[in-house]
Specification:
The protein is of the alpha+beta class and 520 residues long. The protein is built from 15 helices and 21 strands.
Length: 520
């Protein structure tokens, strides 16, 4: 039977209580406070490709296309319409009269500028890897923009316009050649999305105020929002339980979630999501004297990590084993990695001995305890225990906070390191091209013509059944021949809200939409 895509679940939280008092400066709206442990890299879209940054960007910037609450396909936001005008030209017509909150006009020139600068700046922490098929952008008149593509019939490009690569920025405010400081963007009020940022203390407290002149595809913002960043998940759990915040979103520990499930002051909601957790290998700096030895070490590691134990012992089943690159629920998902590398000490030892590698192999593994949740400490302690229990490895663990980690991982400082991923859009290619394409965002020096050719074929294939087989084949080839990353766990999505908060929705990219939140 032909598989069908499973839409990422939409969460809806309903409840009633008395109307809350309004916060200063937002008398027209009820203030709702959202807590998170996610950190912001920058709100300049050219320099951010992470969940914490996109959660803010998706609420303050317009996109040509966007995902409405509950939708699994993008629809017009700043655009009036978008479609292929030629096999290699994707054309969007903008709505007339669009403007940024500071009064600057938003035209096709703004769109061209926004995409051109991402490519020009080419920041290692930016979303440029999503634009690998983009050759150039033309703006023939103020309301028309043409995206000229390298390959025809790109099945993913409309969705890419709704990702981290898609925010439309003000060409009168942001630099064309370098990242613009966040405070300069805020001071210039260079936003045209449902909200503007009226207070910005990065990774501390942000205030988002509804933008009255927003003219896009999302609903008008129902409430003003304060975003409070926590450094400790347990403190966030206590805050939502005590009523100091209204919503807790990313990332509560498994123990915190269990505690809140018995708390009558809140509702806890779970949805199957597209989050994955995985190890990345820097092919230049990881152990091994040759490419063959490095591959053998990756194979041995893959044969030594017990995903079931990580799922049950660390995450109490709130993450499930991930056995290939495309997670369960997406078209083309398979179990290629687990099939190729079943848990086996003997197989791990043979990979190493056949490659002439002396044991134990010294591994330096880096992980991040804030961006990926405080349970990362336990997760990587258990990974160390599992690897060393084989007698084949000695493991040194190191950690760094996200602001440091996100930079150093792209600078060949780490050899083996933790990464996580949320989908930009609900297509299997979003778990393939950004990881294994040319100039991939991992910056781990995987650059392979065979895989790039296979990716180009599946992206441009309009036949759904054939494309699904191609996606499955890419995963099998990656597992058997390259293994540049090691998928480990797939996560559920969790939201916790006070009982007087209604309409909490997660978008298809596992992103909290502020626009629907209401407080009774």
């Amino acid at each position: 039977m032909k598989k069908t895509a499973t839409a990422l679940t939409v969460l809806a939280l309903m409840g009633t209580m008395a109307l809350s008092a309004c916060a200063g400066g937002t008398s027209s709206s009820t203030m709702i406070t959202v807590g998170t442990t996610d950190k912001i890299t920058t709100i300049d879209p050219a320099g951010s490709y992470d969940h914490g940054s996109l959660m803010i960007e998706s609420n303050v910037y317009q996109f040509l296309l966007n995902f409405a609450p509950g939708a699994t396909t993008p629809s017009p936001d700043a655009a009036q319409s978008c479609d292929f005008s030629q096999p290699t030209v994707y054309t969007c017509t903008l709505k007339s009269g669009l403007k940024f909150a500071n009064g600057d006009p938003l035209t096709s020139a703004s769109v061209k500028f926004s995409f051109d600068r991402i490519v020009t700046i080419n920041d290692p922490n930016g979303p440029v890897s999503l634009l690998g098929n983009l050759a150039s952008v033309d703006a023939p008149d103020p309301l028309t923009v043409n995206f000229n593509l390298k390959a025809a019939d790109d099945q993913t490009f409309p969705q890419i316009l709704a990702t981290s690569a898609g925010p439309i920025v003000d060409e009168k405010v942001l630099s064309a050649t370098a990242l613009t400081p966040d405070n300069d963007i805020v001071k210039a009020n260079a936003f045209s999305g449902p909200y503007t940022l009226t207070q910005y203390n990065q990774n501390d407290t942000l205030v988002l105020t509804p933008y009255a002149d927003y003219n896009g595809g999302l609903p008008k913002a129902a409430s003003a929002i304060t975003v409070k960043t926590f450094t400790d998940a347990t403190n966030m759990r206590l805050s939502v339980s005590n009523g100091d915040i209204d919503v807790a979103y990313r990332s509560l520990t498994p123990t915190d979630i269990q505690t809140l499930q018995s708390d009558s002051n809140v509702k806890v909601w779970q949805a199957k999501g597209g989050e994955i957790r995985y190890l990345t290998f820097n092919l230049n700096t990881m152990p091994g004297d040759t490419d063959a030895q490095k591959f053998a070490i990756r194979q041995a590691i893959a044969s030594s990590i017990d995903r079931d134990a990580l799922s049950n012992d660390v995450y109490k089943g709130q993450y499930t084993p991930l056995c290939s690159y495309v997670p369960d629920g997406f078209v083309g998902a398979n179990t290629a990695v687990c099939d190729t590398y079943p848990l086996s000490k003997d197989a791990a030892a043979k990979y190493l001995s056949d490659a002439g590698i002396s044991t134990p192999v010294a591994l330096n593994i880096q992980y991040n305890p804030d961006h990926y949740g405080s349970s990362s400490d336990q997760e990587y302690a258990q990974i160390k225990t599992q690897l060393e229990a084989t007698g084949l490895f000695t493991v040194t663990l190191s950690s760094a906070e996200w602001t440091t980690y996100s930079k150093e991982r792209t600078q060949d400082v780490y050899s083996i390191f933790q990464m996580g991923w949320f989908p930009d859009f609900p297509d299997a290619d979003n778990y393939l091209s950004p990881f294994f394409g040319a100039d991939n965002f991992l910056a781990n020096h995987f650059d392979n013509a065979e895989i790039q050719g296979l990716l180009a074929q599946e992206v441009s294939n309009p036949d759904a059944a054939s494309r699904e087989s191609q996606i499955e084949n890419i995963q099998t080839v990656m597992a058997q021949k390259y293994l540049s990353t090691l998928p480990m766990l797939q996560g559920s999505q969790w939201a916790v809200a006070r009982t007087n908060i209604s309409n909490v929705n997660l978008a298809v990219s596992d992103m909290l939409l502020f626009v629907t939140l209401t407080k009774d």
